[in-house]
Amino acid sequence: MINRVEKLSLLSEMIAFARIDKTLKDIEYNFLLGVAKQLEITREDFDYLLDNPVTHINLKSHSERIVQFHRLVLLMNLGQTITDRELVRLHNFGLRMGLSHESINKVLDLMESFPNKIIPPDFLIDIFKIQYN
Question: pTM of the prediction?
């Protein structure tokens, strides 16, 4: 299980990702608030992170990194359109987390074939398992 500092780092990273276009839409805010609740981060701490990002910390667990990448994919897909800049940024986030280049590319390529571009978690995990083994 990840600790509080790692949780705050994950959430801060997601906030930065959502603000790629310099704004935070209501749907993104609500999604991030839901993630904060899932991570057991208080609303006050979440609101503090909006203006005060914390230092990025790499997760040790490969499975936690995959879960975080999936959250970022979901967050990116909240918008109407996905820009090339968002795709590049997501790809770079995945690489920085230590995920395989091939797996990231496969997720981004296959994303188009799913309804609402949302890859089911078990399918996403299988993609990373294949590359991890």
Answer: 0.84
